[in-house]
Design brief:
Layout (H helix, E strand, L loop, with lengths): L3 H13 L10 H14 L3 H4 L23 H6 L27 H4 L8 H13 L3 H6 L12 H11 L5 E13 L5 E12 L14 E11 L8 E9 L12
Length: 249
């Protein structure tokens, strides 16, 4: 029989693996959320008429319909963890420099990621401070998290992809490894997360508990002078028994 402690650890691990990586996939999160909703209310679909099409009732403006929301407007309404004096504090990536001297210029768009390490460090900082736009901007189009509809993508990240139940404690990054050609690279790294005192709904994390997730990330670029982006990664946990299991495969 699995002990309660180990069971909790396993639950926490799979909750985190929803997408941890500095690509932090959110695909599994959406599936789990939808499945849980159906389990709680199995008759809802039938009660609401199943999959019957509903007549459109959207208000129109001069017969053309309401304009679609702009990404900038949607993002402006989402919360952030970025401090007001961000450029003056230590950068979350652990470089020892201030944010303004490190990841700041990347997140503001002043600099491009010209190395895979740039992508890894800046995405870690973006997740730490909840910069949703930067996560989307640095995701390669072949990544399974990538979406053409950036408004819908941003809403999904805001809803369940930014690790709101956890604080980012530390990033331990390895060396860059060459891929099959000069436009592919890999980095192995570890991320330490600590469960917050006020977890979000559905979280199984215990306040103050730290969990370490490992990943081997793949990065791609279009050419020698083009910026690197995050493409994919194999995620593993340090929970006993799962060290060699790719949890997001």
């Amino acid at each position: 029989m699995v002990s309660a402690t180990k069971s909790l650890s396993l639950c926490l691990t799979f909750y985190l693996v929803v997408g941890i990586s500095t690509g932090f996939s959110t695909t599994t999160s959406s599936i789990r959320h939808n499945a849980a909703a159906v389990a709680r209310h199995p008759t809802d679909l039938a009660a609401k008429g199943g999959n019957k099409k509903k007549k459109a009732s959207a208000r129109t403006t001069k017969g053309f319909g309401a304009p679609p929301p702009k990404l900038e407007d949607v993002l402006s309404k989402m919360k952030t963890r970025t401090p007001d004096n961000a450029n003056e504090v230590d950068c979350p990536c652990g470089s020892g420099k201030t944010h303004g001297q490190c990841c700041g210029p990347f997140l503001s768009g002043e600099k491009k990621c010209l190395t895979p390490s740039d992508v890894l460090r800046t995405r870690y900082t973006a997740f730490t401070w909840r910069n949703i736009k930067y996560i989307m901007d640095t995701t390669h189009e072949t990544c399974r998290d990538y979406r053409e509809d950036r408004v819908a993508w941003a809403n999904d990240l805001n809803k369940g992809g930014m690790f709101d139940s956890f604080s980012f404690v530390k990033l331990d990054a390895g060396e860059e490894e060459d891929g099959e050609n000069e436009n592919e690279s890999f980095i192995e790294f570890k991320v330490t997360l600590r469960a917050n005192d006020n977890p979000t709904a559905g979280s199984v994390a215990v306040a103050g508990q730290e969990t370490v997730i490992s990943e081997r990330s793949r990065f791609l670029r279009a050419g020698a002078d083009e910026p690197w982006t995050y493409a994919s990664g194999d995620v593993r946990s340090e929970v006993a028994g799962l060290e060699d299991v790719a949890l997001n495969s």
